[in-house]
Structures are given as C-alpha cells and as structure tokens.
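Project outcomes to date are best conveyed with an example. Our students and postdoctoral researchers have been running inverse folding experiments weekly, and each run begins with a structure described purely in tokens. The record below, which covers 482 residues, was selected by the lab manager from last quarter's runs and is presented without edits.
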C-alpha cells in the first residue's frame, strides 16, 4: 500500500452553521453560558477560579436545577467550563485570601451571539478539551488518603499515569471515529462498549481471549463508562450507560457474555456529528491525516483525482460533485482529462476516477471527450465513455489501444485493493474475449504491463491460462530490461 494513502476514510461533516447550533445546544456549554450571564461582581470564587461552596446552590438554581448535592455538582462542572472557555473572567485572590469576587464576562461570551459559526466552534473545542481533561483525571474515594505530611495532596500516592490515561481515551475515541467514518459518517449504529474496550485490550492475533484479558476488558469497560458519562454533556457522544443491575455485588465489574443477546445492557455509544468534528480536529492538531469530504474543492484537477483515488465510492462521488460545482462543464472536463494523463504509478487510478468524474459532468462533457479520441492514453477511456452514452460516430479503436486500455484498467483495479472476485471476473472476461490475449499484451507499451501480467498469473482461476500470463510477464520484463 502506498505510503501517501490517507490513514482514515474521509468524513462527511455537517456545515459549520449546523455544528455551531449543535455546540450551543450541548447541555454543558449551554449551562456554562447561563452561568456566565448569571455571574457578576458579587460572585465569589476560590484560588482556582471555582465557585465557592456557598455559591453553588444559587448557581444550580440559575441552571434550573434543585439546590441539592447533585445540582451543585452540575453547576460546578458548568462553571469550570465557563472559566476554561473564557466565557467568564475570574480574579485571583489577593494576599492570604482564599477567595475573591468581581467576576466579569469573558471576551468569548460575546462570540457566541455575535461571532461566526467558526468562532462558536472554537469556544466549543476549548470546552471539549476541558471535559476531556476531566474524563482522564484520577478518581479517588477518600481524599484523606492522599494528604501528605505537609498537608498538600501527594499525587505520587495515586495509581494514575496521566499520559497513559490520555493515550487510552484518545485511542478509544480514534477507534470510535474510524468505525463511524467507515460506515459513511452517518453514525447510525451505536457501538457496544465491550467492543470498544476490546479494541484497546485484545491483541488482533488472539483467538479466544484468556480470563486475564477478559478481566482487563471488563475493567476498561467500567473506566469508559465513567468517561463517556463525562463526555456526553458536551455533545460529543450519545451514551447509554452500563446497566447497574449487572453488578453482582458492590465493587464487582460485569464481564460481558458472548451469549448475552441484549448487549445494550453493557453500554452503547454513538458519536454525534459534533463529536466527529471535535475528534477530527484533535487528530489534525496531532498531525493525523484525517481527510474530510470537501477538502479538495478548491484544489486543482490533479489533486482531486489523486485525492479520491482511495476514497470509498460514495465519498469519492460526493467529493467530485463538490469540485464540479460552480465550474463550467466543458472546461472542467478538459481539466480532468489533462490531469488523467501520465505514466506514473498512480496514473491508471487517476484515469479510472476521471472517467467516473466525467459521468457526473454529464452529456455536456462530450466536446472535451471527443478532443482526446486520438490520444494514446485517453482515447480508450473516451470511447468507453461515449459508448456508454450511446453517442453516434464513435470510431473503432485500433487493436493497440484496446490492449493498452485492458492493462490500464487492471492496473487501476489492482491499485484499488477492491473485491478479489470482481477482479478475477474482469481478468477472465478479458482473456476469454480476445484470442491471443497474452501474445498481444506483453508487447503493450504501458509501464504496468509486466506487473499486470504477473497479477493475472496469480489471480486467474484457470491454471493453464495463469501459466500463460506468467510467461507473458517474463517476456514483458525481458523486453523492458533489454
């Protein structure tokens, strides 16, 4: 596989305007906005910018919650997001004081009503980062156990590796992203939590998981259950938590049974369109190649044909349609045909996608297609395109062009890593249609001739014909090397 292929399939993102509306509707960001508007000069905060305990009941009521312990916890979480996203500006206590007052609106608060969708998404991304940090933070039952002799929290007493925790959750979200974009980006099917946990724990080459591995998967599930509960309010995922009735007794983790039909009891998670956007942004920031449909719209025809070379068919079609939008049909067809020329390794696949792109241009492409009928690299493609549309006055191709097109077509299919059976049918159809096929093909002046013949020798299901292909491949290599 060429190293320049994208690591991930392209994602189909919603528009910035739709994503911005989803961001503003996310419960946690919406709560942060309400608290930013509720806060004022009399709002008291601690050393870290957190609301002091006495303010939490009032903050909970400002969110429409009961002023009890649960409401206070949700208010505290929303306030932290308001601080971390710049929706509020909090003063630092002076001198020996452990609290301060004088909270003012932050610069980012106005962006949510007066800024662009991109501005809103920027604020939401800051909130996502803050919540991600919360999700990977350590959980402890008794704070007293962590207090050192100096009265400060002794982090070394925690069984917590921040880098490992971050890497684990990023890996899980990356796998969830891949599963979603592999389905076309719709994210219609929720992913069972055991499957996500297993994707991080069970080695790919392991058959039946051992009891030790299953225990690790169970522990990872419960870890993820806590983390997805934290991530859901920011709008990243839709999450159905693990059924608490599965706990046989306090402190025991559920081990999913492969025979359990109701896998939903072990937790289900689905990335939202906003979540796809957020995770892709984090990936891009980390240097991961995570393409999106529409990335190639403003680029040239060469970039388009090379870029969609390994896209799934639906994504490639969508990308090409976006590229064609706003371009004059005949001019676009001429640009695509010119970009399809070449003898490099990627040129057969460019020509295949050029033919597909021309089908989207429609009948208006015909003048540009007829201009290349005599071109040795594009003439075969042009005849196929015209014949498929029932065009009149299509000249018969010379025999050399027929076999050149056969080699080019198989070379493109080999590069696509497509369905093996379909490729075998194509190969056997070509060899059965043309008598003396191999005697003609080994002489074809195409850079992929020898490689194509070798592949035909491997893939043809008739051993006698496969042997002929291998002999022809040897002749082709001897001709080019001599």
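After processing, the design step wrote out the following sequence:
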């Amino acid at each position: 596989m060429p190293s320049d292929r994208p690591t991930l399939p392209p994602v189909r993102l919603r528009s910035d305007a739709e994503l911005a509306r989803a961001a503003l509707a996310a419960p946690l960001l919406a709560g942060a906005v309400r608290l930013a508007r509720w806060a004022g000069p009399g709002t008291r905060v601690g050393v870290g910018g957190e609301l002091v305990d006495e303010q939490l009941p009032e903050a909970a009521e400002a969110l429409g919650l009961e002023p009890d312990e649960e409401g206070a916890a949700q208010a505290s979480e929303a306030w932290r997001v308001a601080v971390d996203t710049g929706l509020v500006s909090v003063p630092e206590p002076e001198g020996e004081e452990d609290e301060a007052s004088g909270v003012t609106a932050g610069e980012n608060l106005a962006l949510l009503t007066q800024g662009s969708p991109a501005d809103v998404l920027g604020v939401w991304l800051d909130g996502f980062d803050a919540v991600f940090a919360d999700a990977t933070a350590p959980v402890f039952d008794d704070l007293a156990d962590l207090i050192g002799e100096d009265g400060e929290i002794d982090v070394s007493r925690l069984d917590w590796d921040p880098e490992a925790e971050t890497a684990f959750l990023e890996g899980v979200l990356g796998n969830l992203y891949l599963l979603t974009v592999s389905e076309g980006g719709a994210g219609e099917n929720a992913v069972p939590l055991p499957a996500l946990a297993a994707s991080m724990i069970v080695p790919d080459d392991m058959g039946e998981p051992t009891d030790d591995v299953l225990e690790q998967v169970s522990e990872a599930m419960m870890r993820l259950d806590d983390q997805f509960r934290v991530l859901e309010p920011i709008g990243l995922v839709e999450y159905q938590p693990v059924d608490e009735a599965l706990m046989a007794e306090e402190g025991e983790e559920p081990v999913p049974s492969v025979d359990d039909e109701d896998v939903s009891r072990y937790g289900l998670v689905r990335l939202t369109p906003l979540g796809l956007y957020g995770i892709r942004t984090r990936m891009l920031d980390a240097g991961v190649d995570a393409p999106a449909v529409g990335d190639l719209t403003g680029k040239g025809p060469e970039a388009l044909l090379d870029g969609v070379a390994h896209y799934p068919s639906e994504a490639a079609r969508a990308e090409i349609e976006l590229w064609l939008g706003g371009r004059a049909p005949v001019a676009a067809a001429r640009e695509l045909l010119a970009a399809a020329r070449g003898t490099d390794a990627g040129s057969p696949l460019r020509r295949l996608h050029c033919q597909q792109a021309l089908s989207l241009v429609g009948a208006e492409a015909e003048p540009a297609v007829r201009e290349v009928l005599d071109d040795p690299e594009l003439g075969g493609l042009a005849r196929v395109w015209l014949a498929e549309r029932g065009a009149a006055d299509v000249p018969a191709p010379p025999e050399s062009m027929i076999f050149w097109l056969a080699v080019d077509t198989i070379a493109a299919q080999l590069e696509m890593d497509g369905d093996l059976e379909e490729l075998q049918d194509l190969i056997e159809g070509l060899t059965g249609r043309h008598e003396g096929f191999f005697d003609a093909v080994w002489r074809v002046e195409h850079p992929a001739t020898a490689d194509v013949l070798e592949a035909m020798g491997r893939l043809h299901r008739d051993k006698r014909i496969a042997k002929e292909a291998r002999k022809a491949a040897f002749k082709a290599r001897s001709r080019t090397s001599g």
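The chain has a mean pLDDT of 88. The radius of gyration is 30 Å. The training component of this project remains on track.
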